[in-house]
Specification:
By secondary structure, the protein is an alpha/beta fold. The chain contains eight helices and ten strands. Bound molecules: 6-chloroguanine.
């Protein structure tokens, strides 16, 4: 899989790719990530990328030409899925992460300023938001999307089962987990987990996942119940 990220702040993106699982995924060739500073594609004398809005108003608007030039500089851009990061996009979730992880090539644009020249939207396939709050720019949102995709590529997580079992992949939150010590400040690990009865443990975990989802995320619980009927 190849991912190209178009940004004005490559230094916000690059360090996040050089640690932990994202580092592993790139180092072992599961994914090829390229970060491009699209200011370099501005045709203006001072390499400007924004301008004041027609019709007046506060703030600056991202200009179309540096973005489109940068997009066209990417090899095979015609065949890539092109994503625009914006709080106006569809809300991101695990199902969308799973769909995106099946693409061979993704290009992601991180915006800044008050907004995009509306014509930029014509060059992109999908607009994504990571939730109902506003960030100063799309970089952190793009990193969230990239991380969620990369960990789904087979082989990236050393234990392939763990991506399948996580919260949301089956519409339930994850069950409670424990590790050593058995007792910490009077708080004990549930006996069932020490019993060695694998079936009983699986049953307990499932019930705890359902209980936790019902309490913490009634919206997900309702979705889970509806899916069960199908
Ligand atoms: Cl994709 N961008 C910005 N600037 N803010 C956001 C967002 C994206 N998703 C949620 N908030």
């Amino acid at each position: 899989m190849r991912i190209d990220i178009l940004t004005l702040f490559p230094d916000m993106i690059k360090p996040a790719l050089s640690h932990s699982m994202m580092w592993r995924a790139t180092h072992y060739g599961f994914v090829n990530i390229h970060v491009h500073d699209f200011r370099a594609f501005s045709e203006s004398k001072h390499k400007s990328v924004d301008d004041s809005p027609y019709g007046g108003g506060a703030g600056m608007v991202l200009r179309v030409e540096p973005v489109v030039n940068a997009l066209r500089s990417i090899e095979n851009h015609e065949h890539a899925l092109k994503i625009l990061m914006t709080p106006q996009g569809i809300t991101y979730n695990q199902t969308r992460a799973e769909t995106l992880s099946k693409n061979e090539h993704i290009i992601i644009l991180c915006g800044h300023y008050e907004g995009y020249d509306e014509r930029i939207r014509d060059y992109f396939d999908v607009e994504i938001s990571i939730g109902d709050y506003v960030l100063t720019g799309g970089e952190i949102a793009a990193l969230a999307v990239v991380d969620s995709i990369v960990r789904l590529i087979p082989g990236v997580l050393s234990n392939d089962a763990s991506a399948q079992e996580d919260s949301f992949s089956n519409a339930l939150l994850e069950y409670p987990q424990y590790t050593r010590p058995r007792v910490y400040e009077g708080k004990s690990v549930p006996d069932i987990l020490l019993s060695g009865h694998h079936e009983e443990i699986a049953k307990w975990r499932f019930e705890e996942a359902v209980r936790r989802t019902k309490i913490r995320r009634p919206d997900l619980y309702q979705q889970y119940q509806e899916n069960k009927k199908k």
